[in-house]
Amino acid sequence: GAGAGGPGAQLRRALTQLLAEKDLRSISVRELTDRADINRGTFYAPYRDIYDLMEHLENEFFAELHQRLSRYTPQQLRGDLAPVLEDVLRLVSENRDLLPSLLDPQSSDRFFLRLSGVIFDMYRRGWTLVYPLGNGEEPNYCLSFVVSGMVGLVRSWAQRGFQEPPDAIAALASRLIRSGLQSF
């Protein structure tokens, strides 16, 4: 994303402050630009509305998630899932300022659906070698179980305000996934 300065960073800071006070639907562009101390023209050059800005921030999050997941080879994942899970959970934690709106029931389902999609995609791109749960084409109940469990864990962790550090949640998730897959 944008660095410490620049209108993008100012808008993000202002948006997260406002999200702590109210939900996304009740934030106006004027309120946001006043808080960010930029003029409305600067906002409307790249964005249509608040939802467009939010979608842009969400896309940045998923691009970064994809980049982090792509760093791991199937061989690295064979030993222990904890490092990759910790990497993902750290990213979620770093973006917790945006999560109030992502956890809003109306947007959270779309967000978690996308999160599931990324995990399924990574699995199809080579994790199949490590965890042979089918080829990723036909209905894959084992993988669905793992992905839903992981997404549920992230959701609960976020709803509890990220009380535990990412590495503790990653270790728990890794243990649960490994013990669940041992019989396959």
List the defining traits of the structure above.
elongated; 10 helices; mainly alpha; 70% helix; 184 residues
CA-atom Rg in angstroms: 18 Å
Order of helices and strands: HHHHHHHHHH
Proportion in helices: 55-70%
- The oligomeric state is single chain
Based on CA inertia axes, which overall geometry fits?
A: elongated
Average the pLDDT over all residues and give the rounded result.
82
> What is the count of DSSP helices, taking H or I runs of 4+ residues?
10
Strand content: under 5%
Low-confidence spans: pLDDT under 50, at least 5 residues?
A: none
Main sheet attributes: strand count, strand direction, barrel closure: none
How many individual β-strands? 0
Question: Distance between the terminal alpha carbons, to the nearest Å?
Answer: 40 Å
